[in-house]
Amino acid sequence: MSRFRPEDDLWRFFWGALTTRALALAADLGVADALADRARHVDELAAEAGADADTLRRILRALASEGVFAEDSPGVFRNTPMSEALRRGGGLDDFAHLFGGAWHRAAGGLTATERATFPEIHGTDFWSWLADRPDERAAFDRAMGTGRQWKVERASAVEWRGDETVVDVGGGNGALLIELLRQRPGLRGIVFDLPETTRDESAFGDRIEFAAGSFFERVPPADAYILSTILHDWDDVDAARILRTIHEAAPVGARLVVIDAVIPSGNEPHGAKWLDLLMLALFGGRERDQEQWRTLLEHSGFEPVRVEDGLIEGVCR
Ligand SMILES: C[S@@+](CC[C@H](N)C(=O)[O-])C[C@H]1O[C@@H](n2cnc3c(N)ncnc32)[C@H](O)[C@@H]1O
What we know:
By secondary structure, this protein is of the alpha/beta class. The protein folds into 2 domains: 1-89, Arc Repressor Mutant, subunit A (Orthogonal Bundle), CATH 1.10.10.10; 143-316, Rossmann fold (3-Layer(aba) Sandwich), CATH 3.40.50. The chain has 16 helices and 10 strands. Strands 6-5-4-7-8-10-9 form a 7-stranded mixed β-sheet, sandwiched between helices. It starts with 5 loop residues before the first helix and ends with a strand.
């Protein structure tokens, strides 16, 4: 049972947008790294970061009221476990930057229509916006890398034959395929994505190659195709177009491995219920329930063989 009155819960939701923005400001200013070794006065932090000291104190004080940083004496802040998680390089700092930056503005424009708001607010679609901003593209690719572990666990749950060629369609920086092939020495892999993704190909090893292209045009032929958090970026029409591109390249019997949420029915909390709204704002995309996944696969030439949260498998007919 909530320890707050219903009104208090609502107030926490109301200022959630401010929390998101304050987290981005703290992450962008590198406050968690500046506090890595010791507590420090906000005047010093602000001078180093080029911020206004009074404003930075107000931002940190608000965050500290939620357990992100702590103010031990007036103006002196230290890290807490939550603010530690915002240190550079962990990926959550990049998520803080995205959620409280370009995504925040897109979410702020959300309406009860099927329209993506990102293109209206930023003047172009999200992928083109990233292509024009290498720093944002790198932040996005690092952020995606933070989900690597659960994605690898889902991909490992597949019964791989052992000698297959696997294409990671929209594989980003290759983090998932690198880890999967480390665990499965018989597999070979191709990371397929837009050319502007940031990646360290020296980490790929000799069994993985990168192929640039658009999944609306063609994908390489292979025995299996992974789509990790790809289809939720697209509405049903475009998701089916991606699956049909794969279907054209895939031999009968080829496997489709989709790593995406399956929205449960009922009122249980599930991150995908909120991610669904972000997908709508950014791309006009959506999270899907059991029924919607089955329909999408069946209408695109694949027989669904497993539909569970985080892992949807199909076979090319
Ligand atoms: C949400 S990210 C997922 C990245 C990676 N699969 C993962 O699980 O971390 C979506 C990926 O789709 C890629 N993408 C977007 N449009 C694409 C297109 N037309 N063709 C190929 N890849 C595309 C993006 O560059 C990005 O890397």
